Amino acid sequence: MFNRLSRRQFVKMTGGFVVGTAAAGSFTLIPEKTQAAVISSISSNYRPALAHNPSQNGPLYVAWTTSKGELDYAFSTNPNDANSWTISPRGIGGGPVHPALTFFNNQLYIAFTDSSKQLRLGYLENNGFNFDPVSNLPRVTSAHGPALSFHLGQLYIAWTGTNGQLNIISSANPSKGNWNQSPYPLSEFSKYGPALATYNNRIWLAWSGRDGQLNSRSGIDINDADLYRGKKTTYKDLSVDAPALATLNKSLYLAWKGTNSYLNYVPISGSGYTVTKYSQTSQHGPALDNYKGSLYLAWAGTDNQLIRVTQL
User: Fold this and answer.
1) CA–CA separation, 97 and 69 (whole Å)
2) Please, what sign has the CA dihedral across residues 183, 184, 185, 191?
3) How many domains is the chain partitioned into structurally?
4) Going by fewer Cβ within 10 Å, which terminus of the chain is more open, N or C?
5) Collapsing DSSP states into helix, strand and coil, what is residue 58?
6) What are the C-alpha distances in Å from 260 to residues 2, 45, 167, 241?
7) pTM across the whole model
């Protein structure tokens, strides 16, 4: 069907990609690999979260905040098939922000900011998220969703404080509520939540600055006296929500929602900077993860806010 459409018609259709080099500003259309799978009949007013277990051949998980402020999740071993997704049997009390997901020590963890702006952390147990064993998480507040990742035997949580300052904390045993120290404030500020990922034996942080410009920094380690041994990179692109980070085939990818509501992603670990623009739009930022050798993108659509997942 696509070979009968003009380029303009193709861009307007859901699922097309636009690729361009930042320096040149030119764009070329390329076809999508798969049609996006709509996995829920429940709408969401926030960005979703993606995660998989890297040590097992298990499913891909997606979590989201419903329009009622509840947390739902679903999982699938064939994410491209909308009928293969199993949705959680019940909603879980959440908050008016997006959640974060990651696997740590073969356990799926979820973090979010509740309705009182308190940071919360739980893990998946018996088809539901258990929050009781992690009640010792420091009482910190945020108006945005947090980020989760793991690095060298530590679970990391990063968030934007109510004053706009980025913070990070870690634990080797989060299910017991044992945290290394008080939240470590970073000398960076944002109007949105941050993103975390592990790449090249370092923890990476990405965020949209107060001016909207995307930034990344490697080498974030709260146990190291030199937090900023890795360089900070500021990109020319603007983001109007929290970005996302994921690794695939020895590359680190950054995804975000642009000022025109289109979703974008780009590898940031190499010497080049070629942005892929996805023709789907969203009122919120995307989620990004690798699964079975491919990148997957998740977002809430602008038409009816339903959660969509697609293979890039």
Assistant:
1) 8
2) negative
3) 1
4) N
5) coil
6) 24, 18, 29, 12
7) 0.85
Structure token pair of residue 57: 């051949």
Q: What type of residue sits at position 19?
A: V
25 Cβ partners below 8 Å, 6+ apart?
none
Two structure tokens written together for 194? 């941050």
Amino acid found at 298: A
Give the three-class secondary structure for 46.
coil
Amino acid type, 48: P
pLDDT per residue over 114-172, tens digit each?
Answer: 888 888 888 887 656 665 544 456 778 888 999 999 988 899 999 999 999 999 888 88
d(CA 39, CA 83): 8
Supply the CATH number for residue 143's domain: 2.120.10.10
61 pLDDT above the threshold of 70: yes
Query: Rounded to whole angstroms, how far apart are CA atoms 51 and 100?
Result: 9
CB 307 within 8 A of CB 64: yes
- Which range marks the domain in which residue 19 is found? 2-311
